[in-house]
Batch of 4 targets.
Target 1
Amino acid sequence: MAESLKGGDAPARRLSWNDPDVRSVVYQVVALGLVALVGWFLISNTLHNLSVRNIASGFGFMEREAGFAIGESPIAFGPENTYGRAVLVGLLNTLRIAAVGIILATIIGTIVGIARLSKNWLIARLATVYVEVVRNVPLLLQLFFWYAVITETLPGPRQAIDAGLGVFISNRGIKFPAPTDHVAFDLAALGFLVAIALAVAVSHWAKKRQDATGQPFPVWWTGLGLIIGMPVLGWLVGGAPMELDMPVLRGFNFSGGATLTPEFAALLAGLVIYTAGFVAEVVRAGIQAVNYGQWEAAGALGLSRTRTLRLVVLPQSLRVIIPPMTSQYLNLTKNSSLAVAIGYPDIVSIANTTLNQTGQAIEGIMIIMAVYLSISLSISVFMNWYNKHIALVER
Amino acid sequence: MAQPIIDLQGVNKWYGEFHVLRNINLTVARGERIVICGPSGSGKSTMIRCINRLEEHQKGHIIVDGTELTNDLKNIDAIRREVGMVFQHFNLFPHLTVLENLTLGPIWVLKQPKAEAEAAAMKYLERVRIPEQAKKYPGQLSGGQQQRVAIARALAGSPKLLLADEPTGNLDTQMARAVMQLLEDIHRDGATIVMVTHDPELAARAQRNVHVIDGQIVDVGEAPRLHMNVSRLSA
Amino acid sequence: MASVTEALPPPNPQSGPLAWLRERLFSSPLNAILTMLSVWLLLMVLPPLVEWALIRANFTAETSAECRAGAGACWAFIAQKYRLILFGLYPFDEQWRPLVAALILIGMIVASCLPAMWKPRLILLWVAGLVAVAVLMWGGILGLRYVEDTLWGGLPLTLILATFGIAVAFPFGLVLALGRRSKMPAIKTLCVLYIELIRGVPLISMLFMSSVMLPLFLPEGFSIDKLLRAQIAIILFAAAYIAEVVRGGLQAIPKGQYEGADSLGLNYAQKMGFIILPQALKVVIPPMVSLFIAVFKDTSLVVIIGIYDLMQSTKVSLTDPAWRGFSIEAYIFVSAIYFIFCFSMSKYSKALEDRLATGHKR
């Protein structure tokens, strides 16, 4: 008896097609074999074609001189720099547009999402019209539209629209005053960083104090005061310089100040307006996911509307909002690749130029894919971590 | 006569064109346990939801513990501090543990230190006989256990008055009896309880019954004679 | 005490236009301010817009100079160029063919939206429809002149890229979804790799890959034309997304259904074909419609590799030296076309979702 329980008398396993394990192994071997076969076919063709066309493979070309200029770059770049540096510029440009776009799309999308749920009929209607129009027209078309608006309907620099405060809008982009190279502005930036550190410290201290004495501390207001006050303080300590680098019309164009190029502005406008439509829907769903009973229960305990929002509603909404929100952020980053259509030098556009000039098609495509895959991968790693830590515990 | 804890004088409320509360007059004395019963849609829930301003009344006066409910946020806050509420759907906060559900109000509204609030909360969890669930999340509990937590949460602010809106409406008979027994025990300890139900068996166990039909109080009576039988049954 | 009170009307009027205004627009000071702000915004934007688009617009001008004289929109540009925008370079006399092809495609999409049509023979309809479209577009038989696909363009091409893309990608996506849920580690890994790889990169990189790398992948002397390469990229791309949508549907099927099928002694193919997929595919119809909308919008990207779709034909129409500078009008026109398609599909998908949701509750 005991023997048979240990499996001594179990029916002997024979290698048979009727054994599900055998089948499973065979299927998998066949699938892997097919994939390997197709892969080998493609790779051998490619190697053959490359040798016929005399294209050397490898990333050696990255060291060579690029020979083309890039319209805008956060780091210094000239035609004498290498392809490698050009690709770096593209990557930085992609990250820059994505970062600014994500921040603005989140702000606008959140406002529109809340507006769609407003009791105010007009506001809700306007928000709905916005969302429906923006989501149902291709992003690329919207990009072309904004680019055309900027380059075709805006006046030239000599007739630039003076938006006040030294901001000039023309078909060469948006010119605005920039801080000059003065120690006061460095101090202000330093003050900002110090304020963030202080705000974190204050919130820790406030929590400790409340646990001990029960007295809450106005952490939000203090933090806001710090973040506004410290940079101002830094600026004052630096001597409170009043002069900024103002854009000035010289001849046919502006000099001085900082510029939003038409390409950057159009791409940013398109990405932000488009993505905000999707963010709005995510936010709306997140708010609706929290049952009204939660508001009532918190209200019945005597919590104010603001505290209810912060302690009860937001923590629940965010659980619903954050996963789809991250995928919208990812979409925005991937969509920034449409930059190539209006000539903003992002990673796709520069890799494309590179592969056209050098003929290194495979390497060029690999660079593009590697960049996006590493962004996607890091975001999904974060998402998995987040989901594990934040999921509601239910049985 | 001592000042009543609740005094409704000529209260009227409309949902759009629908006249949901029609000229309600009712006083509840301290230490009373009354049940408001009536068919669904009769306005009984709306009536108690007006008492802590989850709904707004449009005419008449509502005076809770000497404070009249007006648009003044200070008054609303003061009254909500005095009034605990238990809901049909429990409305526990799913992202907080049972203990955190109980301490949220005392910490943020009554400004108690955390340790003190937690000690008090454990006392209330023992009172509702589920102290061992303190670290769990509401989603991990049964319906009956969730309603006990909800009752403990309502008590944690040491209110002078406990409102219960169909507290057993979502529970099976056995759990409902246990929750009722709990509310009766709490009443015996000195709390004032106003409860809404459409379950005649539960209504029969009250000291005083208020019948609401079509938004009007049609009958305020002593506990019906069923009372004795039921308590014998449940004993 | 128990005197009966009759139902009375509320103290303030609760209906009628005034009450509506108070309730919907001026219920609180904040709401009143927001309302005033939006009204101000609308007053700032709408009148000039109406003036530009309608009152001062020119619908009939014969030359661009005449159009430019007015300060309004030049819709005459659209009147001049709509054939180019809609049908691209397709031979002018034969343009009824892409028109009929487009109508067939639209008809098939509409037919697939009717629940009464959700039967196996819908697949037959699709095969027949797609063959008819191919015959109409290429011609060369039935007395139709042969038209090279490099001359195809405009709206029919956009519709073809999107519908063929989804239709061909669907079986691939289905297999990938089943593979991803398979218990066989090698197959599961392959499917996950494919799906995540494709979903991690932008469509544009797939299009570039198909246009520059596909020629390298193939044996020497063997080439596929540009349009087909773009179509392949869209199919490969859509398959990964379809796989995820279908996987969502498979996950929505309760475990009991699988166990029920197993207990009947059905094998894997029978279990999936008779029990699981029919239920899962019904669940995924609304997200599939949303995906179709996304693919329909995304086909506009082929303009970047120079395919002559609706977007590209619009851009080409803008390069006519005689009619320069009317991009805004052209883009609004094309936006309206895209909007009509996408908006109606998304409304349909929403309605369907609501209907299916109630169907599940009962």
Target 2
Amino acid sequence: MKNINILICLLFTVVFSNQLFSQEENSTLYTNRFQLKVEGGLNMPLTDMNQNKITDYFIEYSSKSKFVPSLSAIWFIRKRFGVEADLKFIYFNDGRSTGTNFQKFANKEFGENYYVKAYSPIDNNFIPVISLGMVYRIETEHFYFYPKFSIGVTSFYSNWGGIDLKEKNTNNEYKISYSQGKIAKDNFTLTPAVTMGYKLSDRFWVDLNLKTSFFRSNFTYETTRTDLYTKEVQQLEKTPYKENMAEVYFSVGVTYVLARKNY
Amino acid sequence: MKRKYIVLLIILTLPLLDVFYACCNCDDNIEEKFYTNSGFSLKNIDNSGEEPIESASENINKKAYGIRLQVNRQSLSFLKKDTYQPLFSQGAYAMSCDCPPEITYDHTDKVESIKIITLNDFNADKSANSDITEYFKIRKGYKDVIDLVKSLNYDFAYRLEETEYFDLLLMTPPSENNVQHQFKLIITFENKPNVELLTTVNLI
């Protein structure tokens, strides 16, 4: 019986010796203190802010899936917990086509009785989205799994727009204006995410990331028509954009471990 | 002793003030020219389309009718002006300042008023020889015709616009259709005889 006990103790020592000494220099288990990551992947909006109205053309927020790069840094303050700063490079590159479509839409809407000139400062745009959050760490010698939760700001522009109307066969001119106050819209955003990856070496790791973002748009376009001769202003319509927006960002990242520490 | 310091301070401050003043040391070759409104002409315009066009047609849609006043300007002469030269410093310190334009064209004949008279019965309120200036508006912004006086008395900077035209749109059409109308535009000046221009059109 005594021999059996000794044998079990020896076996236990042999089997788990690797983990018992894993805090040494060569181990990557919970030793990563500060890391930088470059990511790239598909950003897919799950909901559509557009309402099939003319005011859709003024909003520089893309409802299409796009390849989006991002950078992040994680600093582990405890063995299990870290803080993360993330920078996602959102862009809107439909400025020119949107401007053309706005003119076409205005022609279709008013072109029968008026000569139409549509204009809006809508343009291509590039907006870095910063988010800050907490990271929980689960690691093995070769794999890691990080559930995360961040808060940040999703920004976009909701421009003003205008249509000059010259009535056919008369001297009358009108102006249709679309406005909603402040152009820049900053929306508080919640971002739960998970990262799972493989440790290629002590310093270089590769991972897959799944991030979801939620925010609520909250603005209303007001449409007015001004008779430029009589100066009479008529309110035509209010178009609220109050939608719960959701996005999924599926990306592949490469992590570089800058600093290590035995926790 | 204290007085000495004050005098010294003033002496040291003077060049500093001069540097500030030098910031507005503008070009000393300023030409002040003058111009005269050398000629006026009046044409009918048809504003049925996207932009008004001069029309030689006898008939014009009464809801899209207007008159175009063309002004020709002629430069007359100039005189030279000198500006301040800093005492202690040179203009090299100048960064930016609101310098006057190097060439200006000031008006010589001052327009006082513009009136449009109908020579026919226009509507129930306006019989022949009535002033119907209020029925016409300047095309861009629908301003009153009297605002045209400012444009005719305008002092130009850098370049004289030798030919300019102003479109006056008829915003209150006559009550009857297919009637021939004659409009007389009268420009009165402070220091020279009035200019009278006439146009005829059949408003349909």
Target 3
Amino acid sequence: MPDRNASTLDRHALVMAIWLSFGLVAIILFKIGFSLASWVALVLAFASLFSAFIAHVLVNIVFGTRFSAREVSFGLTVFGICLLWFGLAVLIYPHYRSNLLLPVAAGLVALTSAVIFTMMAWLGVRGAFGSFDVIRSFAPRKKR
Amino acid sequence: MPNLLAMSLVVLAAYAIYIAAQVSRHASHASDHIDGGGALAGWTHVFAASGALIAALGPYDHFRLVAVFGYQANSLFLSLVCLGLAGALFQKRLWLASRIFNETSPGDVFARYYQSPSIQIYMLGVALLFAVPFSAYLLSQTADLLVSTSAGYIDRSTAVFGVGFVVFMFAALGGWRAVIYVCVALSMLMMLLLVLTSGLLLTAFGGSGFLQNGLLVAQGVVADAIPGVIQFSGGLGRAPTAGGMWTATAIASFCFAAIGIALSPNVAFHTLTTQPKRSFAFSQVWMTAGLGAGLLLCLAPVLASQINGEDNAAYETVFTKLSGFDEFAGVALVLMLLSGLILGLSYFAVSGAHVLSREIVHRRLLPDLTASGQRLAARIVLALMFIVITLLSGFAPFIAAAFAPLATGLAVQLFMAFLGLCWMPWLSRGAVLTGMVFGGLVVFFTEIPGLVMFDQFFVPLPWGRWPLTVHSAAWGLVVNVVICLLIAIFNRGGAERSHRDRLHDIFARDHKTEFGGRGAQGAKWSLTLLWAFLAIGPGAVLGNSFFSKPIFSSVDVKLGVPSLWVWQICFWVIGVFLTWWLAYRTGLSIVSTENLRSGELSDDPRLLGKARQPEWMRLLVDRLSKRSSETR
């Protein structure tokens, strides 16, 4: 097997293993946290996700890669769905507002901050901002 | 609940098959399938090998042992430190020898070094014992666990054949590399879920009650002490032991037996298919001796306090309890146990199958196979192996349970062969082989199959299993070492020796290990022996009351935890330090390829190419594969 293929496979398998194990633990803790309204379980669930994210960043550093387009789009989709679901849940179920709003909101903010911090560390402030600059991507291409 | 459990299993199965499909897409050569191209990344060894060692030790059984025998059985987890030390002693040099001989299979390396096919046959036998009865035993436990926790929703045969089929599928599709990737994930999952379930038991159910009330062990067992150095009992099944069977001698001998896992051809195969730098050291020190031993040592009593070890459905109670708290918590417990069992099953079954196809099918039976033919042959061997494993665990689990302990017992008899290959060129082929054969016989006659066979066909033997509370592997090893050394005294020299010296000369020239001055050298070995004496040997009985009734004071100390547990944790920390000292500081496990000349000793014409196929085997294959008119 060519080294490049092996390295790609290695990275993919390691990332999958990290998210499978930490993700599964996070899901179990989220379920316990939401059903028993336990903020400790929720904090631990976010800690598990946070650990997986840090491990993913470390894998990227070791393998000299960045997050792939698929990973980014998958991550953003899952994050968006969770955010939407939690927003609706807070509106519909009053006890979510009283018991769970703070730990979940803090966890989501912490995760977002971690993503932004990572982008700034890799791309610089201008580059990180540029990644979200949608208007520029619609601008007409300059003629050479 | 059963739906949730089934869904989790489907997620794991889908993950495994996805990884296997990805690997299969990239694997272009037969070697990529069979041994990962001999170039698995170091991190795979860090997670998968440590996970496999822990899985082979068997947390599933050991939690139950702790529940039945209390803290005396908890000492058995220190065997993971011994596994780390054994790895430090042998892994690096075995890997170097394989590169110097240009061989990727452990049996081939030993056959080349000792110029003996007999040792290769012995190793194949051990690999098969790990691959078939041992794996069947793990599969059988997997099925029992699923049956007891699914409330009859999954029946035993479905569990056996379902799990067996999925493991076979992903192994056949993706080969060795895919198996190792999946083992990495299972290893991480097992460790994380162990922490999670123990944490849940501690916080949600007041699981710390066992600290005040002690573990509820079996009747007549001392829960928080080792019952003496040795007990002169006839062995299990012959005479009962007073206060529990885990005497200091039993613990020490069990730890020796556990070394057999690290010496098994299956683990050696993984070692040889890895590209290590510092990964051997990391795996031995931080994962196996460190995290693995530490987690099990500290958390096993928490889990054990909630289970009835003597019950066949031991985990059902704690599963029901956790499920009552939250159904996901119950599933976490089952997944933790399943990850360990499936990890062990896939690792040992697939490595055994690939060793067999590499050493027998590709080298001797059909040496002219094309690349795709080799891959097909490996898959056929794997399929046959899984058929036997599933049939054995589905219809005759008692046979698997009886033969599984032989695997580690016979593997540990390879100790002198490893010592000869890695460190002692004066250990001759004859000495090693004779020791191994006699050691193996002693193991056989102090384990269930030998005892049952003798009792049935001849006269009942005067001893039972593990006489004098000494593990069968240790009995075998004592006989093995004595015979091997006695014979080695008389045939140290000769032409055979000069062949062996060639490898050791290369070790001395290019891969010298710096043990330091005489003082440092003495300190390293004496401290290791001292650690073994106090942690797992006769000195461990001091831990029964060392911290609760200190010898320097007449006042009893109320620790809140048993003195023996503190003793075990202290010696775990010291054990990790020792392993670190040997693996990193002494450089026993740091592999440098700077001076490595691959294939430097691969020029032995007697063992090259087709010459490996014996004439009788060639004729047999010809007779079977060609028409009679062609063979005339």
Target 4
Amino acid sequence: MTDIITDVRVNDFAVKLANVNGTGSASANGLLMQAIFRMGIPVSGKNLFPSNIQGLPTWYEIRVNADGYTSRALDYDLMVAMNSVTYAEDIAEVRADGYVLYDSSWPLDEALLREDVNFLGVPLARMIIENFQAPRERILMKNVAYAGVVVALLGIEVDLVSGLLAETFARNEKLRESNQRALRLGYDYAIENFSCPLAFRVERLDATKDQILIDGNTAIALGCLYAGATVAAWYPITPATAVMDNFTRLCAQYRREELTPATDDAPATYQNNYLILQAEDEIAAIGMVLGASWSGARAFTSTSGPGISLMGELLGLGYYTEIPAVIIDVQRTGPSTGMPTRTQQADILACAYASHGDTRHILLFPKDPAECFEFALVAFDLAERFQTPVFVLSDLDIGMNDWVVPALTWDDDFVPDRGRVLHDEDLASVKEFFRYADPDALYVTPRTLPGSAERGAYFVRGSGHDLHGRYTESPEEYQEVVDRLKKKHGAAANYVPAPTVQRRDGATVGVITLGSCDLAVREALDLLAEAGLATDYLRVRGFPFSEEMRAFVDAHEHCFVVEQNRDAQLRSLIAVETGVATERMHPILVYGGFPLSAQQVVDGVLASVEVTS
Amino acid sequence: MTSIAKPLIPLAPLPKNDLGLTIRDYEGAMSTLCAGCGHDSVTAAISHAFWELSTPPHHIAKLSGIGCSSKTPTYFVRGAHGFNSAHGRMATIATGANAANRELTYIGISGDGDSLSIGLGHLAHAIRRNINMVYVIENNGVYGLTKGQFSPSADIGSKPKRGEPNALAPIDPILLGLSVGATFLARAFSGDKEQLIPILKAAVAHNGLALIDVISPCVTFNDHEGSTKSYRFTREHEVKEIETDYVPVRLEITAKVSADEAREVVMHDGSVVRFRAVPEGYDSGDRLGVEEYVRDRAQRGEIATGLLYVNESAPDLHELNHTPTTGLNKVPFSRLCPGSDALVDLQRDFR
């Protein structure tokens, strides 16, 4: 082992754990991240996993940063190398002076050794075989044992970790005991054999007090629960499945009402104030959502890119017949099947103009799980206010990774915006009802719900219709309706969440981004400022765009658009919709499937702009 | 979907139903289908069935996909709420609508192309979910609007107006239904209103998805010599062994005539379907027996019509999901949103 003296570095480092998929390592890795969070330190955990149930390589990255810079790191202070198949690439990724933790039950191939890296061998397999009997238990406990080593190396409070395990296995004494034992095996070995903690380490802070650790899929499900969604239809797809898993779990907890039995000896019964339909495909899922929304329920579906493609035709039906719908798109890497367990922001254009013919939709771009919760709610209000499909474009990074975000809050005085609906009492006072006549200031016309009085009955049709809702093939009557639809879409610009803008003195460079890029971009812009380049920052939160978008581009000599797709889709959308010349915006594109890191943004900006100061 | 308003000329005083409405109140716009189209007879039967049942028009939701058949909802019950959706997707829209509001009477009109080709998956799954709706397939074996291509219900050897006879095996919605857990299966002939109306009424009373396959000849593209979906072929090959009457709840009390309880099915709402004529040993609740009967008839080149299969005890979508007895769309927001205290509580799990 090389003996390198390093300065102590507190709460600022990155760890990568290399594992084999399906061995239970995810829980051990999550445990480490959660423990750091509980110590009050800003932290992120990124699961870089394969589309596989068991056997392929998988990685987990933990970045700790007292200042909250927790976007993906590109080099690592500690590599926990638990997968011999990927030893070579994993060891190569460790920064100079960094550490590799490996299982020394077997000797390490000398060809893998690096002069500038410290190798810490722990005979994990041997220790586990000596202490545990059942084969599955041995696999699982090895993970907890290496976590114990990492706890010691990083200076994580072992009692806190022990407490977390006790919470997790509160109802299973046997598992609780074996987990504690495995944790101690690893921890004690490290304390006895290495000088713990290492130079980079954690120390308790108070920076996560009002924060929670939550993934975006759970947060969106919570948003849909709080928004009052009663009908959900979906088809299983990675990475969106957990949206509905969570919605199902939450509904069972908060939407089930016990009913008083008719007689004392009658069995207890309950009613569910929700209905979740696992559809036969995504076409059916969006059809069900439209049917339920037509009937006045708040309904949504959750999916990913391939599902959006399948929904195409009916999304156009929803747009043209003006039926609300909420579509959660947890984006993954395309095209086609692409890389289902890797992240991207490549459905922007597909969603903005989903379906044949002249269609355009409302899009929302949450940056993290907190905004997932908030925007899910906004989506239902907008869908009903504007009587149209609304997309929430999350992504795999937001949806499936745990993020540290401010605790979610709720205003009990919130009243949902159900839009322009004429009920029987309203119908009684109108002279005549025509579905697509009498637009308001937002170009929205009143609708009725099936079951309302006969004078409110009308015929929804995806075929050409006039403002009375009647079939038409007349150019004028057809255009009257579709022209209003375009104006209605435009009117939503001031109702979608406004972009966030952050300005720096003397900035001539503007940077635009959206969604999960935010954390990395903000870090990058701080790094650039330190290097002498002041930048202004605009984060798009919704489509259609407000006037501010064009003004921002016009106001900057150099403009960059950072996004995670190959074709600069956000840039195209801005150019097409605002009339800004495409060349006015330099694209910075990261689309290999891993979450964005700050360095990639810094490099992208510096490739085009010289820092003079 | 071109439609022409029908002049409402009061002729002789028309009889009124329990709601004081005449058959005219259950009609719709003038049909723009070809003269003699089987679908128009189905439309008339639907108007009659709802009129006789005294269903309030605005409590009816009529849905369809795309095709000649799917145009017809504009031609019946003008006071009903309508949804002409996309090709093959009617069942999905109906499923969502029913999920949100179980209190309406849902009737979906589809065709053999709409239901057995592009929408086959949705039909099968709507049956599995037992959506409480009447699902009518107006089955003529061809695509009319695109000028006469075979649909998946065309029989092997059936001849088109032009071109080669059909060589592919037909999809029989009744046999499909039996294999995926259908709870109400009937076949009828559009030319026989006397048979179709009681079946439609029983279908409305049925708790679950009631599938009615109506052989409804296409006079323009499939009514020639050599077609197995023509008027003539259907008249000559129809086997009407299973005949039923529909006895509404209020009549049941006074009109209990049959002593043979095995030949009666009490529907969810208390009305009764009475089997007037059935072959020896036929049991409308015996899934395997019904399948054997239908297959046997088909093998002989015959079309067995009537209410073929009923299972009134299976739970529908809502019973399976323990939803409220009133529509989900009526549950107030205050009972749907857990509120701020719950949000604080549940976030303890996210620490």
